[in-house]
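User: Hi! I have a protein structure encoded as tokens and I'd like to know what sequence might fold into it. I'm fairly new to this, so please keep things simple.
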């Protein structure tokens, strides 16, 4: 289950995410990829009924990102930072799904705080790596980039994610037979995602 959804997320990051970054439109990749990742994590949770599926799905997607470390001359932190963001998105998704399961209702402020929280965690960890390893950080891109990433991107992400959940509120465990994924399909998706991540 988690290999299937994690590989779909990794495949999306390696293809759509790569194209969105090439377009060089500020914030565009983040606007789209976090809601997409959340949707896949929510489906893994919905189909399995287990919160562990949320974390493991993000770990698979992050692991696909980390495959770039095998490439010659790979910058460790340049590879780690997007994987770190995916792991933080996994924590955020689990917390949001826990709230939605407990309250059984959707509030925009809850979704907005979820979008903001993983970005705050990402900023904190980037600053930590800067202090420990003298690595580049978000502040070096300028104050405008930093505030856009933290505030504007969070707002737009929150709006998109809120409407995604309104349109397709299938984030709670279903009362149907559990979704069965053939191992061959899951492993094929994993191989495809890893291959495209290394190629692109």
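Assistant: Happy to help. Inverse folding works backwards from shape to sequence: for each of the 200 positions I chose a residue that suits the local structure. Here it is:
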């Amino acid at each position: 289950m988690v290999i299937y959804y994690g590989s779909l997320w990794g495949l999306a990051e390696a293809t759509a995410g790569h194209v969105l970054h090439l377009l060089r439109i500020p914030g565009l990749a983040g606007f789209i990829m976090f809601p997409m990742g959340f949707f896949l994590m929510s489906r893994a949770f919905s189909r399995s009924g287990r919160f562990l599926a949320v974390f493991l799905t993000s770990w698979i997607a992050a692991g696909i990102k980390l495959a770039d470390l095998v490439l010659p001359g790979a910058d460790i932190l340049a590879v780690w930072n997007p994987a770190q963001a995916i792991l933080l998105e996994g924590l955020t998704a689990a917390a949001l799904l826990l709230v939605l399961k407990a309250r059984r209702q959707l509030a925009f402020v809850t979704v907005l705080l979820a979008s903001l929280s993983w970005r705050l965690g990402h900023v904190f960890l980037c600053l930590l790596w800067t202090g420990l390893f003298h690595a580049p950080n978000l502040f070096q891109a300028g104050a405008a980039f930093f505030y856009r990433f933290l505030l504007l991107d969070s707002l737009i992400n929150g709006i998109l994610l809120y409407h995604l959940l309104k349109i397709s509120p299938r984030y709670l465990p279903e009362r149907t037979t559990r979704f069965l994924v053939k191992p061959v399909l899951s492993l094929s998706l994993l191989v495809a995602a890893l291959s495209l991540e290394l190629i692109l």
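A useful reference point when you look it over: The chain has one domain: 2-199. Feel free to ask if any position seems puzzling.
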